Amino acid sequence: MDLLLQLLWNGIVTGSLIALVALGLTLIYGVGGFLQFAHGELVAVGAYSFMVSHKYWGWPVVPALLLTLGVTLLVGLLIERVFFRPLRDRDALIPLVVSIGLSIGIQALILIGFGAGILTISDGAAPNMALLSGHLLATPVQIIALVTSLLLMLGLQSFLTYTRPGKMLRAVSSNRSLASMFGLSADSAMRWIFGIGTVLAAVAGVFLGYEQNLEPTMGVQIGIMAFAALILGAVGSVPGAIVGAYIIGILQSLLVGYGVIPSGFTAAIPFVVLILMLLVKPAGLFGTRFTAIRH
Amino acid sequence: MKYTAFSAFAVLLLAGCGSQVTAPTGTSTTASTTPTAEAPAPTVEPFVIGGVLPLTGDGAIYGTAVQQAAMLAVEDINAAGGIHDRPLEVRWEDGKCNPKDASAAAQKLVNIDKVPVIFGGGCSGETLAAAPITEKAQVILFSPMSSSPDVTEAGDFVFRNFPSDSIQGKIMAEYANEKGYQKVAMLTEQTDYAVAVARVFQEYFAGEVMEETFLSTESDFKTRITKIKNADADALFLNPQTPAKMELLMKQLQEQQVMLPILGNEFIATDNGKYVLAFRDFLGDRDVAGAAFLGVDTPAFQDFVTRYEAQYGPIEIANYAGVAYDGMHILGNILNHIPNPSDTAAIRDSLYAMPVYAGISGDMAFDENGDVTNLAHTLLVFNGTDFVPAE
Fold first, then answer.
1. Which CATH class is domain B44-163+299-373?
2. How far apart are CA B171 and CA B296, in angstroms?
């Protein structure tokens, strides 16, 4: 029982971080109509910004976090403005290819700036807490990560459902030309989407940096899991991305934890899910086809 | 690994984007190299050998130390007249601690630079990947730090002056047997070095081994640790490729409060447990042991450390650096000893026949497989504050 609890917890923590990244991807797909391959790199940008401000400069967590969100947001918006806006009405393949290039470019810049080695935000282990009368071990970072992720997901869902900009985004995603007739600009929609996605990715980056460590390719690893979550849930669907992310996280944890597959194949699980879904149900669990943002 | 290549490609792309700035620099570098060769001033051409070490990435922590130590030896050799009155020059290539980059580096050194000797590789994966290339071209591959047992069989022209892990794995297995452990859970990184340590350990360990593996690209071990914690193992064996991964494993073990006895490969014990320093309280008074190559604490070694630190700053992994310094000196001696330093068969034969060399890290000679004799790992046990040699 303890094993199951701990494995579920591990999976849920990982799933929450995957979800934060997958949400950005799904929003960008919903509004922009393309897969943003460099989205995982924004996780790395967030993690490195936080490490620099918090660890190197010694800033307290809150200002460091604010700076991290600011820097990452700037990078995200810049990417949108410089690379994706000019390509907006082009075939979806073109921004996809550009984003692959961007992913490589951002990794290379991190590599130049910080080297290829593993870096950490906190030296030593986080203090751990025994929950459920000792049946489960969790670290405060994990708990904060889980709670924050859940709040952000709820916030996003309410934003899309109840606020004017949220409704606007959904309008644009379901019919871009019709929306523009009502004065909803696709430009500002894309800015919103990139902004939201980037902030979520930056938060994931900070938690990932605490939970594991920092390396230039960290965005690729989480990015792949987020892609798998997206395909699993349904590309463009908000609940789909969240459910997909938790399934990937928990599946990985249970399959390896119970020895169903050898641990050396852990990293292959998202790929297997991705391939299986594309073969069996390409539209995803929540989808009928690749389509607009559903909330 | 794919992404390292991608990154390199991206650097090229970026360099290409800034072509107005980059192109002239690139050209001028090439231009300045060519005149040096043609310039009338140097009367003797340098004697060039190759070098392959992990100069970037996680493995760079050794690669850099080993390279700098080797360059100190090159200074000595050149101060004493070089190789047959020609200055010794090393053309360094980055093997990045992986087989792909190391084989590309070896191909370049063998086929383009046509060197008779390569000093390297560093990580075992580098040496094992370079060996088929150097062996075919009958080029000497002299590794100052690869410890995989597979290097023993890598070829007739392959030598190393670092002790094989067959010793390390065996010491740890015998220790586990002595402690009466029946079941050991093992966390092994999937690299040539770590897999070989695991293999030798399993060969000599009398009990059952539960082996969990991970890729170098992974950094989330929570689930594997949970699994091990629930597996009724008597002890845990940590077997990563780099100190960085050892720290990460320790961190996640502490977060899940794994209180088993911990055995480790050299990264747990080397330099008095430097890489697990932050976890001393967590380790506490449980049984913790690892086998590391200690080197020797002679005045000559201390002089070397002083000289190294004066030139490069604080020394990392001093035991590796010392062996590399000795390795380069051995090569210098052999190249000067034979009439034609480019005759690789003669270098090989002289290395096999070499009398004991009294290095700063100990007395060294080579056995029939090109493995160093006399040097060995030592079993180190944690006493609550320090890692001390077991009696």
1. alpha beta
2. 19
